[in-house]
């Protein structure tokens, strides 16, 4: 393949400039891996083992040895995290159910900056283009985190933390080529004096579209150009400053499902679009006297997206926050903070798809506090947190959490928590106007007219919708007898109230008359409209368990296994809301499991892999599947590594999700063989 020949040339060139040295197969010792510190669970650094939450950490080594080229690939294998590839670089990712392209119950941060799409209260994953080699770790918290992070941290928090600029000095080059993608990355880091460090980076990615069954790619690849910088300064011995920013430009190609405007029959058509995303982040930290640390942070996000649909939306988000942490003693800690966020949006659409109103602004305020008290004599830790919010959408919200941790013996840690979290309504929940989409077969009987007149759907948002509310109970246990063995078990029971679902409103003729009031209007009508509106009409219950095992039988071999069980039921009060609730219930597998291994053969060879098993989805029906990835890596010299990857090696093609709420037809995932070359000082 031409791409592989080009990569081989690059590898030979880099080999000529490298110098040989021994390569440590592990970046961290076993003891260091055991006591990794995280910040996402309580907004301050703490030992992962003694966190009273369901937490999983993906290290830089895990990312490198997975061969991942996107966040979605890096997140696979986390227990309780549902990761479905819906196209070559399009993902549906959620924790503890409700998986889909518009998953809206999980908060995602990159270096403390939220990557949140207010149009549907979720994450546009294909807009999160990163240099994964610069990621230090990814912290995944399953369960509610709203007491610290705010509305929408309902079922989990994913925090991507990148490496400080002083850890990325010199020039690094990475290229990856496969039948379905071509990716090139370049990064350069340096210092200005002893206290100031920086890096600049760029990335080009070209990913082919996976076409739905019966179609071929239009030949216009999805291309993205991404670049940015990071600056870290030690202003004084106590003060530090972080500045970072990035820009992303994407050309989009996708297939869309809809109705033929003449025949009103379902059709699938190719469409093109583009996206421009930019952000800036500034964070100042000061280590004060008496155990008081201060942090002031500001970030701005801009997103201008025409996602190959009739609706294009521009967002500008600005957030200012202040946080103070006070460690009064070794047993007591208090963290509190204030946040203000301003959002402006503008939309352009058609009569068939738009926001009403088309422009808007929001101002959200929050104050939060988190305390920890340790009773050494009993080996107990009590955590309590509370966040108060006043949001333009959803109004006021009170989000508490209390957690208890107990270490009855040195290798064992048990924890119990109770929390309330809210999801504030999205712009779509309040303002969407969608007309002319196909009505699913299961709702055809909504029309009281027993004639073959086309029935099309209409959905309208509704102002004044309340926040969704989650009340959650969690229990977990960790057992770590030594640095080579580890078991982590978490269980949960969730109750959702005021769940936002479409509610049935009316069936109308094309002239707007209701068939329930004027039943003969259909005689002069070419079609009927089944209309619905958003409302707090649903309820949901879920329970489940998540298990993670880690075993290092030898210095060169590490095994990780995970399993998750989920039982989810979503219901509404009428036929439409109940039907949509059943789609949400059926979008998540009841069972999922993964086995990952990392094997170092001497100092230069690595053989890694992951096997994944996902049970069937019930509605829409998707068969269960087993697939696996393999990676063989060789470092001929010290600074150069070549890797051969074989991915999705189960069936030649398999479907991972058929998203009933997305207007993109279901697309099967395909096998892939890739060659990667990376040079780093």
Based on secondary structure, the structural category is mainly beta
| SS elements, strand count | 38
Shape: globular
Sheet with the most strands, sense and barrel status:
22 strands, antiparallel, barrel
Give the uncertain stretches in residue-range form.
1-27
Q: End-to-end span in angstroms?
A: 29 Å
Percent of residues in beta strands: over 45%
* Rg (CA only): 26 Å
- Count of helical stretches: 7
Mean of all residue-level pLDDT scores:
89
What would you note in describing this structure?
This protein has 681 residues and is mainly β. The strands form six sheets. It has a 22-stranded antiparallel β-barrel. It has a five-stranded mixed sheet with strand order 3-8-9-6-7. The radius of gyration is 26 Å and the shape is globular. The N terminus is likely disordered.
Q: Characteristics of this structure?
A:
681 residues, mainly beta, 22-stranded antiparallel barrel, five-stranded mixed beta sheet, 38 strands, disordered N terminus
Write the layout of secondary structure elements.
Blueprint: H1 2-17, H2 30-34, E1 37-38, E2 46-47, E3 54-59, H3 60-66, H4 71-74, E4 81-87, E5 90-95, E6 107-110, E7 113-114, E8 135-142, H5 146-149, E9 156-162, E10 170-178, E11 181-192, E12 196-207, E13 222-234, E14 239-259, E15 266-287, E16 292-306, E17 312-329, E18 332-348, E19 353-355, E20 359-375, E21 380-391, E22 395-409, E23 412-423, H6 427-431, E24 432-438, E25 455-460, E26 468-482, E27 485-509, E28 528-554, E29 557-571, H7 575-585, E30 591-601, E31 605-614, E32 617-618, E33 621-622, E34 625-637, E35 640-647, E36 653-654, E37 669-670, E38 672-679
Parallel strand pairs: 6-9, 25-28
Antiparallel strand pairs: 1-2, 3-8, 4-5, 6-7, 8-9, 10-11, 10-38, 11-12, 12-13, 13-14, 14-15, 15-16, 16-17, 17-18, 18-20, 19-24, 20-21, 21-22, 22-23, 23-26, 24-25, 26-27, 27-28, 28-29, 29-30, 30-31, 31-34, 32-33, 34-35, 35-38, 36-37
